[in-house]
Fold each of these.
Amino acid sequence: MLLKRYLPILTWLPHYNARLFGADLLAGLIVTIMVIPQSLAYAILAGLPAVVGLYASILPLLAYTLFGTSRTLAVGPVAILALMTGAALSPIAAPGSELYLQAALVLALLSGVILVLMGLFRLGFFANFLSHPVISGFLSASAILITASQLGNLLGVSASGHTLIELVPSLITSLDKIHLVTLAIGAGSLMLLVVMRRWGRMTLGRLGLNDGLAGLIAKTGPVFAVVITTLISWGFDLETLGVAVVGDIPKGLPPLTLPAFDASLWHQLLIPALLLSVVGFVESVSMGQMLAAKRRQRISPNQELVGLGASNLVAAFSGGMPVTGGLSRTVINFDAGAQTPAAGSIAACGVALITLLMTPLLYHLPIAVLGAVITVSILTLVDIRMLRLAWGYSRSDFAAMAVTILLTLLEGVEAGIVAGVSLSIALFLYRTSRPHSAVVGLMAGSEHFRSVTRHEVETLSHVAFLRIDESLYFANARYLEDTLYNLIANRPELEHVVLICSAVNLIDASALESLYAINARLKDSKVTLHLAEVKGPVMDRLKHSDFLDTLTGRVFLSTYAAWKELRPRPDQP
Amino acid sequence: MLLKRYLPILTWLPHYNARLFGADLLAGLIVTIMVIPQSLAYAILAGLPAVVGLYASILPLLAYTLFGTSRTLAVGPVAILALMTGAALSPIAAPGSELYLQAALVLALLSGVILVLMGLFRLGFFANFLSHPVISGFLSASAILITASQLGNLLGVSASGHTLIELVPSLITSLDKIHLVTLAIGAGSLMLLVVMRRWGRMTLGRLGLNDGLAGLIAKTGPVFAVVITTLISWGFDLETLGVAVVGDIPKGLPPLTLPAFDASLWHQLLIPALLLSVVGFVESVSMGQMLAAKRRQRISPNQELVGLGASNLVAAFSGGMPVTGGLSRTVINFDAGAQTPAAGSIAACGVALITLLMTPLLYHLPIAVLGAVITVSILTLVDIRMLRLAWGYSRSDFAAMAVTILLTLLEGVEAGIVAGVSLSIALFLYRTSRPHSAVVGLMAGSEHFRSVTRHEVETLSHVAFLRIDESLYFANARYLEDTLYNLIANRPELEHVVLICSAVNLIDASALESLYAINARLKDSKVTLHLAEVKGPVMDRLKHSDFLDTLTGRVFLSTYAAWKELRPRPDQP
């Protein structure tokens, strides 16, 4: 069982058969063709040689086949991680330098170690700390950054930088150097890609293809763009006209690489590796869950961490770069009918064959075409809907999203994601730190208690019934004290306070301390403190302290029971 | 009104009279005598010249008189901030150097700016993010660190460092150099202080003094220790025997100092200043609130930030060091009967007079005595009770406390407080990220619903009633989805799911997205989603989105209403 948990391949391999292999083979071949332009493009986006993208699409896929739980996830270099990799490495070394390559391997290694450790310690829940608006804002802003960074490639000018503040001036000052042939190639591929994406499926459908196949072919636009433009570039020898082309890609299988053990380099890359791991995991696991749900399968987030971690470790030792489950390659894998992770292994073999034999064919591929491929695929991540939803629904969610977007654009990906996460946690704590509370009274003719400000209710002058609508914990412990002290300061005739805990799901040690303090202070003021409707788990916990012994009043099962007990008796004055 | 809010002196000065002045004068004079040894001691603890402690006890007190809201808080250098100041400055410069002095001023300035800004932006609630166990653990560990750092002074050897890892070896290697006369003076004062603190009040009471006065005199032990040992030191000329003494303290009023504007220095000190500000604020405001409550007064945490900020700004411009409300000096001020912040101004004048005229009298005061003063006052902060309470009550609170203590001792004050805060927030989010939820059923003969696993209840096979005991927000949005998908996967006969929201105090945008997704997925599975017992504020918020329009089912006011509506009718099959 333990073996099956950590090696999910054991759950499906014994049942593997020819039918499944047939489906996986088809999907694997389609993915192979698709990922070649993407892999080259993302390596260049990260400031690495194009071949690194191919290496990262071979052995990491085999590792995921062994350790991953999603049946359809396709692992490899992805745009966001490429952007984050470039941002993490550029302060350390110049793109293209030996140190830069080394640092990319270290980043993949650290990311792999972090992911595997998080998986083994079952820390997958950490991904939940990224709220939807923050993820959405981060992805949208990253997409804009990536597009801006590709504008240089599309225009044939050199634009560098990892924030809009760096990119925009760099683009503007080089507008006079636009290379028209490059622009023509870039704009042409962009148009081809947009047209195929938008109208390809419909047109092919009209031509008599079945809808699934038409959809799949429409998605392979990048392959057509690459083939056509490479042929044009070769035929007209565009390189001599000054069009930047991919150039020599070393032929052969991935090399065995050993990431440098350099303490100061590791130290510098630790935080970027952590951020990269979490972002990659979130991107991968949300997609994996969505697709698994469509087929009523399940994935295990903690084992996914192990699978992605193993992929990154393997990438570090085979000349690669940080990888995760890629959006577009996974969708294609799914649509092409992949049934098991074996499809990934087949794609890995395909990429290996191409790397081994066919890289010279890519020599004339213009970089501008790769820029167009990235741009068209990344712009789908810009999510205006979430921005609108957050604005209409919750200003604090909107604030977290807006800060994430602005900081990502202006300060870079790391600042953006850190600020977004910190802000959403801080805003949540702030909201829960001033819980809604209501003094309630009895609805006539019922056993229900409602707020005295919203309803016509019966009250008792010497008893206050206070309902707290939040778990009691450190962030609101002091607020609770304030609320109660204000209550007794304003109603000197009070003899009893009943704290209604129906919405209290947790009382932590800070809040317990506050309850002790409240109990003591109320006692000084000759007011008895009672609790009502304390939930089972909360009550169990309170019994671990001596609070219930020191409590001046009682714990009532229901508010009505407290009412019956504390109301003046007919025979009393 | 606005002027009164930001200048609280306007609320009490118009009503000031001779009776109040009499009380304040007495308290001010007693505090003056008390703070002299403390101020010297804390400056030396921070690695600064002794006179800096005196300067920091003059003008900052006047600033607090203008801007502070507590009637009895006494501002000045305190042990914890002195420790944090030393830890922040020692990586930057050698203690005693000109740069070190400059950096202390910059630290006070930054701290002042941060506190004032937090006050103006009403960010006082940030202090709530420090949970009681973390504060308590931090104070205990700091007290141990301070005691360890004073052992060197008490033994007459030089021990340096800001963590136990640095201090302990440094002490052990110099054990053979113990200076016996210093040890005798140190141990003697330690005993005097402990005896006066423990038995002074009782003994003086027996001698016929009234209890209040006896208590006050017992607290002035440090003054006696200083006077007696200074006389001995002077009489026997201990300095020539090798006992470290305070030495020359420049006579005169505080100088006007201008903190250096050095961008890199400011940058290095920004985070330490932030931590120091928050810790100082928490220490000061908790004490201020406790004492205000004793006299049924109130303080305003946000205005306290302004008051403490102003004090630190003034300290930066008058040769001082970071200050905040001090525990022992405030208690003495309170016990001596201070009625208004004017008592602080009187103490400031007293300290100014002493600095102006009487510093030569302090020449022979042995440093060991100051070490004894610090040790006795700081060890009261070690709080074993909270450690025990946290252990018994909540393992996650205990974990946060233990990590804070260990990291403070071994890695230093900054690492300790940052780790403690992060861990308590992370643990809280973790706990709320896997909310308790229960499938419930109807208790026979009632309208109450209880968990099917804990009670004998009626259920409907085609309807699941699920109660979620937590607010729905980003950290548990995905968990909610998992819970619901598992529920429908395990019960294929389900037609309706009723989500009971009685304990849901908040639904944020992430959770709303999850509700959309759940609604859509349940629809695909031909299951209708209903809500029940949605609270008013949550409902108001939901109406800001179109979720209620897309919801496949209804929103029921009570779970029982849903039961009545969804149970099979007698006339149905």
Note: The longest helix of chain B spans residues 263-294.
Amino acid sequence: MFTGIVEETGTIQAIKKTGLSMALTIAASKVTSDVRLGDSIAVNGICLTVTGFSDNQFTVDVMPETVKATSLNGLSKGSKVNLERAMSANGRFGGHFVSGHVDGTAEITRIEKKSNAVYYDLKLSPELTKTLVLKGSITVDGVSSTIFGLSDESVTVSVIPHTISETIFRTKAVGSIVNIECDMIGKYLYRFLHKTEQTKSNQTITEAFFSENGF
Amino acid sequence: MFTGIVEETGTIQAIKKTGLSMALTIAASKVTSDVRLGDSIAVNGICLTVTGFSDNQFTVDVMPETVKATSLNGLSKGSKVNLERAMSANGRFGGHFVSGHVDGTAEITRIEKKSNAVYYDLKLSPELTKTLVLKGSITVDGVSSTIFGLSDESVTVSVIPHTISETIFRTKAVGSIVNIECDMIGKYLYRFLHKTEQTKSNQTITEAFFSENGF
Amino acid sequence: MFTGIVEETGTIQAIKKTGLSMALTIAASKVTSDVRLGDSIAVNGICLTVTGFSDNQFTVDVMPETVKATSLNGLSKGSKVNLERAMSANGRFGGHFVSGHVDGTAEITRIEKKSNAVYYDLKLSPELTKTLVLKGSITVDGVSSTIFGLSDESVTVSVIPHTISETIFRTKAVGSIVNIECDMIGKYLYRFLHKTEQTKSNQTITEAFFSENGF
């Protein structure tokens, strides 16, 4: 469980591909300070398990399913990545539960600086936008962001200078691919609501429905 | 409160059945290192209270309700079990919010190795799947897992080699029974949504309802 | 933050009432071992601030609001109370997240011993049950408990012998009043869902809604 507050940006030291899976070695200082085997660390928003570590670097295994559903394939030696350790038990209940299970990717289609904020338009599938809500939360490469604009195929988020300087947002350009996790609560509500609708709409609003209700 | 990151596997030393309840004596080293009477330890995902301990073993009481709702009845002397101590205040939520209150059991119906991941199909009741969501979390024998496939009667989780080697997943086969805890967040939202649906549908659609909405 | 694992039962030495507020002096040994002015101690699940202490006793002030919302008024000299210190940095969440902010009281309406567990039916307001969920957590007089039964106006919890012997559950009878705190995660999600419902229901049922449904 994470909160979407990036702790530091690390650097890819090595990428070992074996068939469809991958092992990443990442240089970092803060998240390795108390690391142990089996710990969970979010790498660009993807929850990965630490399988090895030394002073200032750690290694993680990436399953085929995860490689396929994220932007990890676009990484190379020297790439910068957002890093966050799992939420600490005495941490604050942030406004946003992030599981680190990425739902898909999006493409940056517009970057616009307005006063002290930068607006990013992200093109993404309706499968993802359907569970989102205006002013709701979305995680972009592990960064918890607020949704300022929303349509069937795009989302607009606005990022403050501090977040840009502390994350890989600073390395992004129009055309960049980012990992997207939709807010957990929205996903649950969408599924429950549509399962109920499904059961209800199997009983479509028919003439009989009205007569049952005395019309 | 747990997080679904198993700390070690212990071994059943003795099982004492009294009527419908049970007392288990479990050999372990890591979770007994700082154990105290009254501590909570998750045994195959079930939160149990320590009622006795010595150097490398501890004893727990199991209520009839818990014996009935879980796979504990299938254990025997020498069985391996997953163990996790309650979240430490300075610990991290490497998995998700796990209460240790098991919701039911599931049967493993398929095990498939794909590259560096192993996929498990679990057959379980619609009463449990109704509160789950794709890419959501589920606890299997105390192991925090990601839902990669979901239907009314089954869930597919994928487990990385590290987790398999560190837990009793390594002892499981098709037909094995596992304990399931559904994600707490999903259960809450499901109940709230259906209570709201219930209150809404109790207000049958009346003449007044239509006029209020301008028809 | 507490976790609902009672450390010891203390004894009321003195109760000083001033208008609607109250000062309690409580005899205890364990929780006074490292006590300091300003520390938080949960008394029957109520987070109170230590305003004075000597070897084996401490004093706390109780605000009118807290006196009104809890069962403290029912205490007298010699009454036993459940005590728990705030989570220490190296403590463990053996129960669940407990804030010590009591939501209300409940009346015990049934006590039934079944094998090695005792079941308690608690009558409480729908305002409290609405945020609860089956197999979820609830705090009863500061004791973290699992919800085994739930209806609009009642909750059933089951308590193991160890917990009964270590807490004031042993002094309770049918008719006793207990303090209730509902699970923090449930309250948080309930509020979040109803805020979202409010935003949705502002979009009244329009002509379009009906034409979409074929009318």
Note: Chain B has two domains: 8-85, 104-198.
